[in-house]
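Two entries, shown back to back:
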Amino acid sequence: MFWQNFIRLCSKAGKSPNRVASELGFSNAVATGWKRGSVPRDSTLLQIAEYFGVPVESLTEETLSAPDSKEPPSLEKENERKEEDELETRFMNAVQRLPLPQKIALVEILEAAIGNGATDTRQIRQRLSASQTASFGR
């Protein structure tokens, strides 16, 4: 019940469950526990409810299809969301293992890619290669 409500709110906010958990200061393991049926403590429920701007009851009560809700996500969308969650987890785990100079370089690359709208993977790889040469050798 909690997990379905949490997923619904995450989807409405356009964020993955792992991203919301991370923004709230929880590990991916905590979010995985919720997915497997664990219910957060009252203080955590309050924190989540405040994050979404909803009453705590909307996280814990069984909800029927809300009148304003759209049809459930397709299997394809659900699989895409799962892949995105897994990729985010892998990314965060990899970043945590980097030394500080590499983290700085990575942030600079990401900001440059976002700022320049670089969607071509070749451009991003070229920047990464140049940055590795300049920053990773610090």
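entry 2 starts here
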Amino acid sequence: MSESAEPAGRALEPTPNPESARFVLASSSPRRRDLLASAGLRFEVQASDLPEDPLADERPPDYAARMAREKAWDIARRRRVQGDRRPVLGADTIVVRDGQVLGKPESRDQARTMLALLSGARHQVITAFCVVRADGTEDQEAITTEVCFKELAPAEIEAYLDTGEWHDKAGSYAVQGRAAYIVRSLVGSYTNVVGLPLCEAVEALERAGVGRE
């Protein structure tokens, strides 16, 4: 549910003909790419390299919204210098447990601590997105999904860590992968937990004039 590492600012081409791309995705996340492609959308990818540090006393939803907006505008400004005024979609996904933001783990020990914190408990996954339109206006929204994990035995946590899926994942798990059996219940958008609330994002893109195949 997080973005995998790609060289910052590098433009990728998930469409056969980049000139047919109707908007730019300001994220390197392969999950977001797959979700948008599944909706019949044509787009290019250019990841933002902005720092992602939260501000002092910044509420989790505000942090996600700010990051989504800043990423979208970062790439929109770069594209406009080149004369490209296609819409730009930015997004940011965070995992929140009792008001604490669980980011991407930097080590196996950190991932173990996060999974133990989520074990047998409810947490929220918040994905904010921002669409910068061709006319310079923006469309922004944040979607929250509540997720409940089963109680995890230490051996289960170690087995999951052995898969390596925790790398570069907010909260140290990927609901669309081996962690699927860990989720006891999910209330809200499933694609939001994967990395993008697809229904709402597509609606925002359509309002920006982006059509589907």
